[in-house]
User: Which sequence fits this backbone?
């Protein structure tokens, strides 16, 4: 029970105090210790990555072996490239030409495609957000239009003062609201960090 | 002490002092009052609706690194998993950062155990897709589309993927709750938003722990202190006195 409940809190507390000490104090050995503790995170993430990869293979193996035809295809579409990349990476290294070719021409183009979907989603979200349903939404739309049109070349073409107003909107009301928001957010993070460090916040291992 | 960090250190000590005073008060039965957070009540509503529709709920923490918003998101997961276990709703959790994966599994397991429904807990419903942002995005989109999710919770370190998930959820007619780094996106797309520090207040509220509530009081006190310092600093600087600015910079 000590290993499941008290030990993680103890490790978190000691590690947290070292990292905090490295932040506040100038002692070189303490700063080095803090840097070492932070680097342990990479090691822990590597172990977790193995678990994640096992989950990915298991779920997709089940889909490929027992699902509907479309599920089989989806499962195989993930498993086959996964195996190919692992085999090439282990035998030729991650700097091999064939590995780089697969990464640049398969993964990167796929990733760019997924990322480009954002443009369409932003437009549809903006359409809904800019619909004037009440006074707040109207204000939001006016401010949004000024902020979008102002810096664009068409803004100055429509009205010479538009870029000046857009600059004011971004630098005064928007900046003021953002800073107030960020102060609240920073205090929330300090509170969450302190709770976690002291073992009061235990949500990350189920709150037990 | 490192240059420029004395002020932060003093503020941290004051913050902890206020929190400990309220923790002491909580032991004597005096708990701080916390207003109801509408977004948290949406958890039961979404789980109930999903059960009626026979569709699952999806939760994710974003592609950003494991940080305070993700820890708050994991606390929200315990409430979502509890509601799903209670109502018999299927819950899918997708993760991008591998270190979040075992935590999410453990939280789900405990939530199902607390509702005496451990036999209904499916470890494989916690899905790891990829550490790469776009691989993770593609995986979540596929999961949301194929499972036709009726509830979509996005609480954590959400980055550019937030708008993609929120718009997909919107198209599927899912009840959506957002919270974390992409608040502006969520305001435009979600039914409920844990705005700014509400996210951390929600984490404390869900736990129901008086000690965690005490930290919320310290947060509020910190806000008033900072507001006072901003006003005082503005007046002093306008009058040409840099004493406060120099003190904070030490």
Assistant:
């Amino acid at each position: 029970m000590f290993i499941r409940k008290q030990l993680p809190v103890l490790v978190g507390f000691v590690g947290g105090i070292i990292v905090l000490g490295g932040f506040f104090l100038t002692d070189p050995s303490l700063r080095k210790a803090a840097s070492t503790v932070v680097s342990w995170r990479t090691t822990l993430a590597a172990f977790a990555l193995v678990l994640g990869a096992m989950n990915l293979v298991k779920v997709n193996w089940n889909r490929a072996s027992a699902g509907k035809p479309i599920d089989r295809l989806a499962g195989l579409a993930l498993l086959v490239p996964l195996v190919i990349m692992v085999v090439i990476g282990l035998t030729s290294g991650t700097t091999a030409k064939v590995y780089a070719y697969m990464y640049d021409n398969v993964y990167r183009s796929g990733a760019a495609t997924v990322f480009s979907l954002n443009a369409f989603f932003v437009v549809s979200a903006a359409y809904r957000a800019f619909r004037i349903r009440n006074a707040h939404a109207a204000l939001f739309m006016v401010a949004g239009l000024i902020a979008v049109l102002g810096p664009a070349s068409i803004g100055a073409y429509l009205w010479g003062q538009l870029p000046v107003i857009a600059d004011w909107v971004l630098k005064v009301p928007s900046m003021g609201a953002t800073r107030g928001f960020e102060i609240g957010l920073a205090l929330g993070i300090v509170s969450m960090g302190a709770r976690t460090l002291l073992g009061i916040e235990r949500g990350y291992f189920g709150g037990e | 002490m490192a240059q420029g960090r004395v002020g932060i250190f003093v503020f941290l000590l004051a913050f902890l002092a206020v929190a400990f005073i309220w923790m002491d008060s909580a032991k004597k039965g005096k708990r701080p009052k916390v207003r109801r957070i509408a977004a948290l009540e949406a958890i039961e509503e979404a789980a109930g609706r999903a059960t009626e529709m026979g569709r699952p709920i999806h939760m994710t923490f974003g592609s950003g690194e494991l940080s305070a918003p993700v820890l708050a998101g994991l606390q929200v997961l315990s409430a979502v998993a509890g509601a799903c276990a209670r109502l018999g709703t299927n819950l899918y959790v997708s993760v991008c950062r591998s270190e979040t994966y075992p935590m999410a599994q453990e939280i789900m397991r405990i939530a199902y155990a607390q509702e005496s429904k451990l036999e209904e807990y499916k470890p494989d419903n916690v899905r790891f897709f990829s550490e790469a942002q776009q691989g993770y995005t593609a995986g979540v989109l596929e999961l949301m589309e194929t499972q036709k999710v009726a509830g979509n919770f996005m609480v954590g370190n959400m980055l550019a993927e937030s708008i993609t998930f929120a718009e997909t959820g919107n198209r599927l007619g899912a009840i959506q709750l957002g919270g974390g780094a992409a608040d502006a996106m969520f305001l435009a797309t979600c039914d409920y938003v844990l705005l700014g520090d509400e996210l951390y207040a929600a984490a404390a509220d869900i736990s129901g722990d008086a000690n965690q509530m005490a930290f919320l009081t310290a947060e509020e006190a910190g806000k008033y202190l900072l507001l006072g310092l901003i006003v005082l600093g503005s007046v002093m600087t306008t009058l040409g006195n840099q004493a406060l600015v120099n003190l904070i910079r030490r």
In short: The mean pLDDT of chain A is 87. Chain A touches chain B through 56 residues (CB under 8 Å). The radius of gyration of chain A is 26 Å.
